[in-house]
Design goal:
With 105 residues, the chain is mostly helical. The protein contains 6 helices and no strands. The chain starts with a helix and ends in a 9-residue tail after the last helix.
């Protein structure tokens, strides 16, 4: 429920509300990679890149064989100017799921 609430709030642009809902999802299930991923994306949209990076790292830690986390972290790393880290994450995403595109501009 909290995850779906967070996703709905995020789609409506209520990032603070979405983050609060993802916080609740994480409180109930502390290793919930998808909640960390989406909270990280909300933080990224708010310009809170350090918090976004920390959450994307946790999303990958708790779901290391899911391409989505690596892909999104590669986008953030590219935004932050970490081309080497971005390329490594993008390559890992494609290794895990060949349908993921390279996020390079």
């Amino acid at each position: 429920k909290h995850l779906s609430d967070g996703l709905a709030l995020s789609w409506r642009g209520d990032l603070d509300g979405a983050i609060a809902a993802f916080d609740q999802a994480i409180a109930l299930k502390p290793r919930f990679a998808f909640a960390y991923l989406n909270r990280g994306l909300a933080y990224q949209r708010q310009g809170e890149t350090a918090r976004a990076a920390a959450d994307l790292d946790l999303a990958i830690k708790y779901a290391p064989y899911t391409a989505r986390g690596y892909y999104n972290r590669s986008v953030l790393r590219r935004e932050l100017g970490n081309r080497r880290g971005a390329a490594a994450d993008a390559n890992r995403a494609v290794e895990l799921d060949p349908d993921y595109p390279d996020p390079a501009p």
